[in-house]
Fold:
Amino acid sequence: MGKLLIINGSPRAPKSNSKKYGDILRKYWGEGIDVYSVISQKHEEVCKELGKYGDIVFVFPLYVDSLPAVLTNFMKQLEKIAARKENDLLKNLKVHILINCGFLEPEQNDTAIEIFQYFCAKNHLNYGMTLKIASGEAILTTPFAFLVKRKIKRFVKDIRAGKSRTLDISMPLTKKVFLGASTKYWLRYGEKFHTTEKQMRTMKIEDE
Structure:
């Protein structure tokens, strides 16, 4: 098995939850890992080195039921590599995704996953494991953080075993409890940036 490459597909890469999940993944994987954040815009350089990896894990947040635009820019470069039939860089590579969303239900990630899987099929990329994390914005700060860590540990074991299946994790809460807790969370988050509840509820995003 070759090295592992973690692709952080978040626009907020250095301060993102995707980085936190990637760090947990690194802990359980051990040695032989490289990390690339798509916001660094070195796509061509990274793609030229893909031959030294056995697995890639794309770690990213759900954006409007889809993929972050900064991630799709990297995927376009990857598509160019895949289109070169004489190129063996991707021959032995297996692709996996770890996606998180702010919703209670992990299946909210499904549309984005289908888009990614279609991309892999179209470009003849070997697709492996999927991990869907719900309540991804907050779960690591709750008593349920151990559930995520345990699931990521299983995710790593399955990648090493060459498996191809879907895992998911969410907080064991009712929708009513989740709504109340998430509202408090976002109000506290808004206070950090001096944003009121009224401002957060408006559709207006900047002054005219």
Observations:
- The chain has a mean pLDDT of 89.
- The radius of gyration is 18 Å.
